[in-house]
Specification:
Elements lengths: L2 H5 L4 H22 L1 H4 L6 H27 L1 H4 L3 E3 L6 E14 L2 E12 L4 E3 L1 H6 L8 H11 L4 H12 L5 H13 L3 H4 L3 H11 L7 E14 L12 E13 L4 E10 L2 H13 L7 E6 L3 H10 L4 E4 L1 H15 L4 H16 L3 H10 L5 H16 L6 H6 L10 H9 L9 E2 H16 L2 H13 L3
Parallel strand pairs: 5-8, 5-10, 8-9
Antiparallel strand pairs: 1-2, 2-3, 3-4, 5-6, 6-7
Helix pairs in contact: 2-4, 7-9, 8-9, 9-20, 9-21, 12-13, 14-15, 14-17, 16-17
The structure holds zinc ion.
Length: 459
C-alpha cells in the first residue's frame, strides 16, 4: 500500500493513533537491533544486514497488522452484515481467527463470521474487502512463487524463495498454487489485447513502411505421462506434440515480441487458438510473413487466419533436409558432400527450386538410404516449391527463417519442460506452457488477476 491509502484514513485521530502505534513498533524493533552493541566484537556488514533481514519481518508484519486494524476497524467490529447472495441481514455467529502470511510478514486478525440460513452460506465481509486468500500465504506471495517456478523446479523454487525473502513456503504449496493459476490462464488473457498489439505495431512502424509481422508456427515434442491414480505405478511416458505459434514484429533495430502460445493439443484446437490471436491484429497495418517447416497442418491454419501472408518455408529446416541427403549420399566424401549442399542451398536461395528437383532426380543414389532420403527431399521440395523464394524475401526485408527467434521457442518449451527425467501429465504441462507464455507475452499480471478474482470470494 502506498502513502495515498494511509491518507484516506479520514479521522485525524485514527491517523495520529496509527502513527503512535508504529512508533511503538519501531521501538520494539530497535530493541532487537540493539543487541549488536552488547557484543564484544565488531560485526561485519553482512552480519548486520542479516540481522535486519531476520528482524524486519516481525516489525513490518506488526505494522501491517496495525494498519489493517485501523483501516478496517468497522468491518472487524461488525455485528450485522448483508448476505452477499440474497442481501438478508444476518447477525454475527462468532469471531473467527485468520492467520495471513504476506511478503511483509505474518498478520493475525480476528474477524466476525456470518451465516445466512436461507442460502446456507458462511461469509466474511472483511475477507472480501481486503481480498483474503483462503490459503495462509496470501496473493502477493502466490504471485511471485508461481512466477519463479515457471523457471525452476518446485522444490528449488521453495529454497530460492526462502533464501531471498525469508519466507518459508513448501514445494507442495508452490505446486498447488501453480496448478490453480495455470488452470485459470486462458488464451483470452495470455494473448495481449488488440490495443496492446496495436501499440507494439506502432512502435515498429516507420513513416515509410508498414512493419513486417512474422507468424511462425511449429511443433515440439514433449515428454508426457498419464495421470497416475493413487495405487497405480507412475505410467510409462510418451512423447506428445506441443503445437504453437510465435508472432513478432521486425523493426529496424530489434525484434518486438507480440504473442506466444503453445499447447499439447490437436491441430483443430491449434487453428482455433491462432484465429483468436489473428482477430486481435489489424492485418492491414502490417506486411505479414508466415514461417514454418513442411508440416501441412500449420500451413492450413496460417493461410486461413492470415490470407494475405507471404508463405516462407523456414530456411533452416529446409537446409537440414538437404544436409540429411548429403550425409547418406556422400558419407565417405565429406568435402564433396559439403560442395553439393552449398550448391543446392544457393540455387534454392535464387529461387531455382525446379532445377534443384531436376538435379535430385538425376542423382545416382549410392545406397538404399540415400535413395530413400533423395525421394523424401524431392517430395518435400515439390510440396513447398511456392515457399522458397528466399532471394525475393531478403530483398523485401522478409525473414527467411526463424533462427533468431528459435531461442524464444527454447525458452517456452524446452528449458523447463525437457529437464531430464521430467515427464509431464498433459494438463500440468499445458498449465506450465500457458504460464510461460503469459510471462513472455507480458500478460502474467492479467492472468494472475483472473485467478485472484476466482479465488477471493469464498462463499
Ligand atoms: Zn442469503
Amino acid at each position: 500500500m502506498g502513502p495515498a491509502c494511509i491518507a484516506q484514513i479520514s479521522d485525524p485521530d485514527s491517523k495520529e493513533q496509527f502513527r503512535q502505534m508504529i512508533h511503538n513498533e519501531v521501538d520494539e524493533w530497535v530493541d532487537e537491533l540493539l543487541c549488536v552493541f552488547d557484543e564484544d566484537r565488531q560485526p561485519t556488514l553482512m552480519e548486520m544486514s542479516e540481522l535486519f533481514t531476520r528482524t524486519k519481518q516481525k516489525f513490518l508484519g506488526d505494522c501491517l497488522q496495525r494498519m489493517i486494524e485501523e483501516k478496517y476497524a468497522d468491518l472487524l467490529e461488525q455485528e450485522y452484515a448483508s448476505c452477499p447472495k440474497c442481501a438478508k441481514r444476518c447477525k454475527k455467529r462468532f469471531d473467527s481467527p485468520k492467520e495471513m502470511v504476506t511478503m511483509q510478514g505474518a498478520v493475525g486478525v480476528i474477524r466476525p463470521w456470518f451465516f445466512c440460513t436461507d442460502c446456507s452460506i458462511g461469509f466474511s465481509p472483511f475477507d472480501d474487502a481486503i481480498e483474503v486468500s483462503r490459503k495462509k500465504h496470501q496473493f502477493d506471495i502466490q504471485k511471485k512463487a508461481v512466477n519463479l517456478s515457471a523457471d525452476v523446479t518446485f522444490s528449488r523454487g521453495s529454497e530460492i524463495f526462502e533464501d531471498l525473502t525469508g519466507q518459508s513456503i513448501s514445494d507442495h504449496f508452490i505446486h498447488e498454487t501453480f496448478e490453480a493459476v495455470g488452470s485459470e490462464a486462458h488464451l483470452e488473457d495470455v494473448i495481449p489485447t488488440e490495443e496492446e498489439i496495436a501499440k507494439r505495431i506502432k512502435q515498429a512502424s516507420t513513416n515509410k513502411w508498414r512493419p513486417i509481422l512474422v507468424v511462425a508456427s511449429d511443433g515440439a515434442h514433449l515428454p508426457t505421462r498419464p495421470k497416475a491414480g493413487r495405487s497405480d505405478k507412475r505410467g510409462k511416458g510418451q512423447w506428445q506434440e506441443a503445437k504453437g505459434f510465435r508472432i513478432y514484429l521486425l523493426s529496424k533495430s530489434r525484434i518486438i515480441h507480440v504473442a506466444s502460445w503453445h499447447q499439447i493439443q490437436n491441430e483443430a484446437d491449434f487453428g482455433k487458438d491462432l484465429a483468436l490471436a489473428a482477430s486481435r491484429i489489424r492485418q492491414d497495418s502490417v506486411r505479414i510473413a508466415l514461417l514454418g517447416d513442411g508440416a501441412d497442418w500449420l500451413w492450413k491454419h496460417m493461410r486461413t487466419c492470415f490470407p494475405k501472408g507471404r508463405e516462407i518455408l523456414d530456411y533452416y529446416h529446409c537446409a537440414e533436409h538437404i544436409y540429411k541427403v548429403a550425409k547418406v549420399q556422400y558419407g565417405d566424401r565429406p568435402i564433396k558432400g559439403l560442395q553439393w549442399v552449398e550448391g543446392t542451398i544457393s540455387r534454392l536461395f535464387f529461387s531455382e527450386v525446379d532445377n534443384v528437383i531436376t538435379g535430385l532426380r538425376r542423382m545416382k543414389p549410392n545406397n538404399d538410404d540415400a535413395k530413400e532420403e533423395i525421394r523424401k527431399l524431392i517430395v518435400y521440395l515439390k510440396n513447398n516449391r511456392g515457399k522458397t523464394h528466399y532471394r525475393g524475401d531478403r530483398a523485401g526485408g522478409y525473414p527467411i527463417g526463424s533462427g533468431g527467434i528459435e531461442s524464444a521457442n527454447k525458452f517456452i518449451c524446452h528449458t523447463r519442460m525437457k529437464r531430464s527425467g521430467a515427464w509431464w501429465v498433459k494438463e500440468t504441462g499445458n498449465e506450465m506452457l500457458r504460464i510461460h507464455c503469459a510471462i513472455y507475452n507480458g500478460t502474467y499480471d492479467k492472468v494472475f488477476n483472473t485467478y485472484k478474482r476466482a479465488h477471493v470470494h469464498h462463499y
